[in-house]
Amino acid sequence: METKQNILKGAMILSIGVMLSKIIGLVYRIPLTNIIGDEGNGLYSSAYQVYIIILTLTATAIPAGLSKLIAEREAIGEHKEAEHIFKVTLRAGFICSLILAVIVVLGADVIADLFFNGENVGQPIRVLVPTILIMTVVASLRGYFQGLGNMVPTASSQVIEQIFHVVFTVILAYYLIEKSLLSAVTGATLGTSIGALAALLALIVIYLKIKKERKPVLEAQKNYHQESNKVILKQVLAIMLPIIISTCVFSIMTFIDLSMITNLLPESLSQLKASGLIETVPVADVAHLEIGKIATSLKGQYGFQYNTFINIPISIIVQIAAASIPAIAASAVINKRKDINEKIKMIFKLGMIIAAPTAVAFFLFGEPIIGLVLRKATGGELLSAGAVSLIFITIAQLSAAVLQAMGKPKEASVHAILACIVKVVINYILIRIPQCHIFGVIYSTTICYAIYGSLNLIYLYRHFAIKLEWKQVVIKPIICAVIMGAISYGLYVVMNLLMGREKLSMLLVIPVAIVVYFVVAIWTRTIDKADLEGLPGGKKLQRFIRI
């Protein structure tokens, strides 16, 4: 059986890149939100979500599909065939992106009218079009490098992309806000294109270097069987389509969420105002704002504050799952049931060790956490309300990854579609209830992922006899997180009373909470010796804590 070090190696590299990108991305949203406010964030989120859906269709699945095919060819010494697959995929992806880009340019205003009730997002959507073309090439290059077993270009290009994205987004928004809010939002979206271009240039430099290094290997290959473009594209699509469907379903769902908020929330808020309860809505100076501005501000909180913070732990969990899929699949091929169960137990435990304490922290400290990075701590109530969803999102994402590893990606896609259909119905019901308003979307997300995860787990149990060790991998991490939360919250209250400074109290509580969780997890054997052995420097850590 592969060691935990081997399983986590790829995830560690990719996770570092993702985490640095997330941190940089979070930092840039501080000045951006201070410049364009919640209303600007609402417009930005609408335009950006259109881009995400198109990116999902054109680029998101390319690294997974391309890397698999290239790795297979490289393993049997077919280096020239691997190069040919890369070039065919790159050309096909670029052509598809170009077609979609033209459609978006021509239909941006129609999209704004149809889905966002005529919001001024047509111009920002058009500005994002070049990014669609650039990111398709970027995704192809990342898939190529990953197929060669090199994760560093992907991770480094993600960081470079975010740095340029951050700098130019803030600069453009700052200088254009004097003209109008729409101009500032448009400038912010242009920063995305500049970041993508920087990543592309970095990857091209790496590609040229590796191409030179690979030249002797390619020349040494005597036998070369060039597959037809049609055969290659069929192979790529067979891998990519299930991934595209699963990813696209939730990208579209977020798009539908924003659309339903835009179209249904104003009526709900109007009823709330008529009943004299509008001041219960978490928007600054809400009593003096128009309904449209309140709705846009709430959408901005959901699109930025909530989604940004909730996606930080999820991004790490996704990388752990992605890096574990090949290991689980390898055991499945030779039918090593014990290995399969051990690896599944490992990824679920790792996921919950991340998700459980984060969920408790978001639930108890939603507003203070956002207040650490934003001048106005709006969105804290949404983050607290959505904290529980982290547990279900983790279970759903990891169980979907296991289904893919077991050769059942279509089933995961079907489960995702069913869960999202239920979410749309619940959205429609809850958003229209004045007392729920924006929180209806948060509650429906929790229900959606609970259904998605349950369907996945039921399928795994019925068809593969795979059953989670709930006590060890789910319940114990949650208990440890609750203990951590109780101690941390008590400490926060005391420190806040003594010092009267919320941000400083929160900053001091965070490291204490981490230590408390780690100690409690070891004390309860939630984290055991075998888990530490799977971490870099794990043996030294074992000696330090003597377990």
UniProtKB/TrEMBL annotation:
**InterPro entries, A to Z:** PG_synth_SpoVB (IPR024923), Poly_Biosynth_Transport (IPR050833), Polysacc_synth (IPR002797)
Location of this chain's protein in the cell: Cell membrane
Q: Does the keyword Nuclease apply?
A: no
Q: Does the keyword Glycoprotein apply?
A: no
Enumerate the transmembrane spans.
7-28, 48-71, 92-115, 127-145, 157-177, 189-210, 231-256, 312-334, 346-365, 385-405, 412-431, 437-461, 473-492, 504-523
Which key words tag this protein in UniProt?
Cell membrane, Membrane, Transmembrane, Transmembrane helix
Membrane topology recorded in Swiss-Prot or TrEMBL: Multi-pass membrane protein
GO (cellular component) term, any one: plasma membrane
PANTHER family attached to this UniProt entry: LIPID II FLIPPASE MURJ (PTHR30250:SF21), PST FAMILY PREDICTED COLANIC ACID TRANSPORTER (PTHR30250)
Instruction: State the protein's name.
Output: Polysaccharide biosynthesis protein
